[in-house]
Amino acid sequence: MGTIDSVLKENRLFPPSDDFRVKANVSGMDGYNALCEKANSDYAGFWGELARELVSWKKPFTKVLNDSNAPFFKWFEDGEMNVSYNCLDRHLEARGNKVAIIFEADDGSVSRVTYRELYHRVCQFANGLKSLGVKKGDRVVIYMPHGVEAIIAMQASARIGAIHSVVFGGFSAGALRDRIQDAAAKVVITANETVRGGKTTPLKSITDEALGLGGCDSVEKVVVFQRTSAKPEHWSEERNIWWHKLVKDQADECEPEWVNAEDPLFILYTSGSTGKPKGVQHSSAGYFLGTQVTMKWVFDYKDSDVYWCTADVGWITGHSYIAYGPLGIGATQVVFEGVPTYPDASRFWQMIEKHEVTTFYTAPTAIRSLIKLGGDLPKQYDLSSLRLLGTVGEPINPEAWMWYHEVVGGGRCPIVDTWWQTETGANMIAPLPGAAATKPGSCTLPLPGIMADIVDESGAPVEAGKGGFLVISKPWPSMVRTIWGDPDRFKKTYFPEDYNGKLYLAGDSAHRDENGYIWIMGRIDDVLNVSGHRLGTMEIESALVANPLVAEAAVVGKPHDIKGESVVAYVVLKSSRPEGDDAKKIAKELREWVAHEIGKIAQPDEIRFGDNLPKTRSGKIMRRLLRDIAKGAEITADTSTLENPAILEQLRQSAI
Ligand code: PRX
To answer: Ligand 1: which residue has its CA nearest to atom 6?
Structure first.
């Protein structure tokens, strides 16, 4: 790992103000250290106490952690609860009339939903799902616009013990089909259209296309929410039912299905380095606890907060920090349907002013694009309501961090740079804002009870300043339980034999500095991080090779100012290597093909055609060389094992 030693030296420290520290839920490093000590001295007692404090139980658990069948850990295994009850019913008495969601649509119109209204709407929809025959343990795929109804659909599934799998509305029919098929979903919930940035996408038609691709025989019904006035192209009286008709005569009370702590709450598909996407399976109680602890510690939740996480419910951030975390703790949150740049790049700042947002959680890619499109724009708005800022999804570069801190946060708001993953369920490494002094670009310290470490190939901790593999050495409540239908892959991917199956391997490289602060250096597998979203190179390669023109393809990432990484594809056609206009035409066709096969986010920014790809004599593609060529960097690696060295020059000259 010597070659990935960090070159970034960042010594600026930003301690919380006295005022912030004094009022914080965890106050000062003493507060943080006390929690860490408690976790270190009595791990089960520590989590057990939090689970009793932050989760409402129907039947209390008697056992905290069962590790007898590692790595298939069980938390609170004899307890019973319901996540939707925890997000809705338990707030009715104290804050039934409190606004739960301030929804701002793409066109700027605003509506508000109180906890009581949300409760009734979730109950009605839950009864609707039951009337379609959905039962505990059935899978429900949610392919919807980001908005109140998507949250209702998730909460309603949770309420009746069904397992939801949300598919991001930007995914294509093929990607949707794969997920429906893998989860064997009984019901799909979609909308006629989604509206983002003034443009519509026909989700219902894409769903029809997905079901038409075959392999989705499990699907009995498709519920369609009417988001716009557009009429769906096709309508099957047997399979389709409008959302508004389904809920029309349903009772607005619905007794929650009391589930076991370990019953799955949802499956969320995420990219891996090989093979098809992994269905990351989360539990009910442990997952929910993770969201609650971090709302309290990392987001320093206060009853008076107006909280806004800009993610889409299609990603894990939208699950943990929109659909479950804020509702579980009883927060008022902004939910935004649109994009940060529409109608212009001041949208976020305008909305922070309008809704008096106190806590703002977004992604580095959004920050970088907003700096580029109007770095001075925030100054035109009153952002004085803000007290805490957060980032997630990828490392944030110190310049973007400083801009966020000064221009958006007015120099007074701590920034919580939260490292976590689809698989971890909740924030893992992040500053507690009233305790840790932050450093631009570092996610700082593990949360109390999270045993993060950085190790070498043998599993031994590396010394400060040296890069290594980020691992978690003890199970934690909100961790992934398995890969849906593939427990072997779960074991091999996350608890590899290299570490005797004892360490959770995150797939990231990282180092610690002399203060023990953690710096994430990037992925160690063939996974790209484009605009904070994980894309498996393998999936994009398979999509390309599925095109009739393509013989072979290799995909790598290239650093990108705004997106973090962009997709570069090396392609060998079945016919001869195209040049000039011909090459441009085929490149355009292949980009559209990838958008259609996976979704626009996976489209290659750059395509390079070659007569073949650089391979070792044993036939392995030398990706490191392809990364260097994509970056325009000098190739310093030893190319003597290369079968066909002349290919490098050809690929170097062929960017389109
Ligand atoms: O590489 C890390 C990066 O995003 C990966 C997880 O991606 P995903 O499962 O899609 O979840 C994203 C939202 C939680 C990680 O393995 N990552 C996430 N947060 C950070 C980060 N890298 C650096 N700093 C972060 N704060």
So the answer is: 421
